[in-house]
What does this fold into?
Amino acid sequence: MRRTPWSLVGLLVVAGAVAAFHVGKAPPSVPSLRAELGASLRQAGWLISTVSLITAVGGMAIALTAERFGHRRLVLLGTALGFLASLAGAFAPDVDLLMIGRVVEGLGFIMVAVAIPTLVVRLAAPPDQRIVLTLWSAYMPAGAGSMMLLCALVLSEASWRIAWLVAAAASLLVMLALLCRALPRHELDPVPATRRAILGEMIEVATSGGPLAIAFCFGAYSSCWFAIVGFLPTLQVDRLGFSTGVAAIVTALVTVANVAGNLGGGWLIQRGVARGPMIVATALSMAVCAACIFLDGVPDVVRLTLAGVYSAVIGAVPAALFTAIPVHAGRPQLVGAATGLLMQVSNVGALLGPPITATLVSAGGWPAAAWLTTAALACVAGFGVFLHWREKRRIPA
It folds into this structure.
């Protein structure tokens, strides 16, 4: 019986986490960056959101390109782009050149993020496929959260350029490890398959009930997640009186807590818990938790505790959705495209969640933010019901 090469799977998951460094390094670096380069708030916002915007626009197209170019090559290319762009960005003399670097970093990130799921599924023995996808589901909070925490700890006394250099160094190390460990592995060679035109496969995935439901479920999850994490520092400073440094550290810790939910959700699925009911139960219970983070009358300590609980528990949703992709993709050749669609809609949610929350808070104060979190998590629960119905009635066990 074929065994899963866990060291190689682990390296690929680390590669994804390091790609997420480039997402996590930007938000804590904004104060230093504005002071040194004179960036406006609008420019700082674009520096933060550029990676999400590129993913939202090109996720599925890049995923289908990976099917033809080769997933292993795309991971190596994406990691190399992250290294070069972050290294060059560390020496950028102005915001415009730094913005160009962020565009390249965004391309590198999406290349890595859409290519690795197909590779880890290909590497894993059939009984281990859910496990490797569960591990993969933690790449974003583990990578971005770790980088946010590092930046929060060191950037009070250092320049934002340190964050760019650290991310570049990590990408270089991963690139070298991939060249040594992944390049020679024949298991990662492209699998011959009959393929349709890219546009035809995009339409096939985008009109398929399962992948579409997974993507929109993840998009609703992301809008709520980024609404909470994005405004948690402001909430701490405005209502709790924390310093910006302490608020950044607390937010980073809340982000990393999401990993616990990723791993816990995958553990439950591996032991036979149905993913649909788990998504529904998680979303409905956390809708109450998320609302209480913003409502008046909640003690400050309880509010922060609820944020940590929310982050940890809601992480079960990405684990459930990533493990659902091979089940609903229709055929193995579309796993990458389905992942790309998930990434696209997820990042649309990430882009929409914070501005909608800001509009609600401006109109009705912090308690109004609960309208978004409640509606988004109700959508997550609804898509969970649909996925459960589809797995029970259309897909053989």
Summary: The radius of gyration is 20 Å. The mean pLDDT is 84. Residues 8 and 185 are 9 Å apart (CA to CA).
